[in-house]
Amino acid sequence: MKNLKLLFLLSLFAPTELYSSHIVGGEMHYKSLGGMDYYVTLILYRDCNGVIMPQTVNIDVASAAFQHFAAPLDLLNSQEITPVCPSMSTFCNGGQLYGYEAYMYGDTVSLTGADSNWVFSYSSCCRGGIAGNLVNPYSDAYYISAYLNNTLGPNNSSVFINLSPIFLSGNTLQTISFHAMDLDGDSLVYSLVPTMTDAATPAAYLPPFSASYPYQTPSGTVHFYPISGLLIDTVIAVQTPVICVEVEEYRNGKVIGKVRRDIDMAFLNQSNSVPTISGMDSLPVFDTIVHVGDTLNFDVYAADNDFLQTLLMDWDSLIPGANFQITYSPLPVGHFSWAPDTNAIGNINLLPVYVTDNFCPYEGWAFKLFAIHVLPALPVGLFLKNDYPTIRVYPIPAKNIVHFAWNENISGEYMVYDISGKLVDFGALDHTSAFNWDSRNFNSGLYLWKMETDRGALLGKLLLSK
């Protein structure tokens, strides 16, 4: 499990390669070094049955306004990341099981000017026949790209928060994360897109598959979440689809960057129940808000229907000052605690949690992503008088109607704010003990509600899940 994270943590800081690479996926991102200089990182996933990877690869750097050029990237690091149980070994280290490795390449690339459509790209022929949802899995090339609009100033691309798992158990509910983080705090939108064979040509999919339906499910639909980049599905085993996810990066309403992850996955027919990870304090809640001056505490629980298996929990420390203490009794429990300061206001602070079991030959793997939104400290005066009535808000999460009820009649007004603090709705409370808020015109997410009466003011949060 730690191997799935190591290269990601390191990564924060195209002429076609004509060899049978046995590459099973890849992604590219970049970081501004100031001016026109960018550090470009390419991560390639390799089948260990393939040929040895080179020490240097070439990427193509192109724009509509400037002449394209080739840029070499040097090998920085590589490691096996197969989720194999400790008693087994793969082809990567002399064993007999299928395995894969991640290779990280990087170097500084100096652009020749500002343009709204810089494209960094890498191409390799050929895919190697793994992708079972493509018409030409043996002859299609891999094409991996990242996009930059530097007319609005320097930009850091989004970065996927974990390396991609490739082996997953089929016939059981899986959460597959393509979530990314952005150092600049730009807005991210995720989408399933066609895998490309070059800059202009999408690969042909075998019916009934497509970019938006890359694998077969019992319901005939795929559940992809464009706000979080999560795929949550039960995938019928055995399948080996290619899945491609694009992350668009918006700043002031304009697209300033794009990255893609193009990856071949294998959903295996293993008699293994994958671990599960609870929401916050065992509730179906995976994002929340906290005010500066307050401390957020919650617990995360792991479980597994295979009671005799051993579970291990881990996390990525992406939130400065946060603590996640893991205990075992015998199942793992993670206790999160954080008192944010003003530097965290406006950020979506991410807590990735991983759990693995010890099934052989390939371990079961679970992932959950928790998001924490930080708001300014509550203003002086927004406190309840001792005799303020108790308010119940339900259901949480809500879909259409949110019910507010309390134990006596009060008058005043209510207000609802989105997570950025913008007022999105308000109304009057006229000597009533209940009211219903119609949320059908509002998107899924966290909201802050406020009631003001002559008895004082009360603040709370609610979650919409459409």
Structure, explained:
- The protein starts with a helix and ends with a strand.
- Strand 25 (348-356) and strand 26 form a beta hairpin.
- It has one helix at residues 3-12, and strands at 16-18, 23-34, 37-47, 56-62, 69-80, 100-110, 118-125, 142-148, 159-160, 167-169, 173-177, 180-181, 187-192, 224-225, 230-234, 242-251, 254-264, 266-268, 276-277, 287-291, 296-303, 312-315, 323-328, 332-338, 348-356, 365-375, 391-394, 401-417, 423-438, 445-453, 456-464.
- Residues 4-20 and 380-386 have low confidence and may be disordered.
- The chain contains one helix and 31 strands.
- The protein is mainly beta.
- It is globular.
- It has an eight-stranded antiparallel β-barrel. Strands 27, 28, 29, 30 and 31 form a five-stranded antiparallel β-sheet that branches.
- It folds into three domains: 3-268, no CATH class; 276-375, Immunoglobulin-like (Sandwich), CATH 2.60.40; 391-464, Immunoglobulin-like (Sandwich).
Offer a few descriptive terms:
466 residues, mainly beta, Immunoglobulin-like, eight-stranded antiparallel β-barrel, 49% strand
Low-confidence stretches: 4-20, 380-386
Largest sheet descriptor: 8 strands, antiparallel, barrel
- Summed up, the domain count is 3
Task: Return Rg in Å.
Answer: 24 Å
- Spatial strand sequence of the major β-sheet: 2-3-6-5-4-7-8-17
DSSP strand count? 31
Beta-strand residue percentage: over 45%
User: With helices defined by DSSP (H or I, 4 residues minimum), what is the helix count?
Assistant: 1
